[in-house]
Write a structure and sequence with these properties.
single chain; mainly alpha; 0% strand
Length: 81
């Protein structure tokens, strides 16, 4: 039913949530699925801890990201062999 209500509940989105939905809707379906998978993985990795959304990275942050990226790449390479 296009344009109709899915159920009787109404969800009010915050401004950030609305921006996220708008951005996801602008993506091709495959890319939107990748973003959702990435966001879900971030939520799982946080394990319920507060996440610092600062856009500044310390040297330690960069080193951690590089280590995580390298280990993930190494795992993918091992799986391909």
């Amino acid at each position: 039913m296009r344009g109709g209500a899915y159920n009787s509940s109404v969800i009010i989105l915050t401004e950030n949530e609305a921006r996220l939905v708008e951005a996801l809707r602008a993506l091709p379906p495959g890319a939107a699925d990748q973003v959702i998978t990435w966001a879900t993985r971030l939520r799982e990795l946080s394990a319920g801890r507060d996440v610092d959304w600062s856009d500044t990275w310390t040297d330690e942050d960069l080193a951690d990201a590089q280590r995580a990226s390298s280990s993930g790449f190494d795992e993918l390479e091992r799986e391909r062999l």
